[in-house]
Each structure stands twice: as C-alpha cells, then as structure tokens.
Amino acid sequence: QHLERLRDTLIDEGDAALGEVLAEFPGADRQQLRQLVRQARREREHGNAPKSSRALFRYLRDLG
Known about the structure:
This protein has helices at 2-13, 15-24, 30-46, 51-63. The protein contains 4 helices and no strands.
C-alpha cells in the first residue's frame, strides 16, 4: 500500500514528489522515474489503460 500511495503521489504531484522518492530509494534513476510519471499522467488525462502506472509501481517495487 505504501508503494501505491507513493506512485499516486508521484503521478499527482510530479517533480515536486520526486525528492521524497529519491530520498527513500537513493538508487532510483531520476530520468526513468520522470519518464514513467509523465507517461502515467498522460494516460490518466486521456483515460487510457494505466500501463505506465503499473510500470511505475513495478519499478518502485523492484527498488525496494
């Protein structure tokens, strides 16, 4: 559940929440995170399937 909240916060707040994630997961790739967040945001705005949102969750899970 923590990762789901983190993912949703990233999608909702974008770069503003990136620092929190990078503090928790120092090995995270900032560029990849930003790309996944942008794609997930775009999908949400257009009502598309949450493919990138799931990919973002998996990425966060694999970091932990």
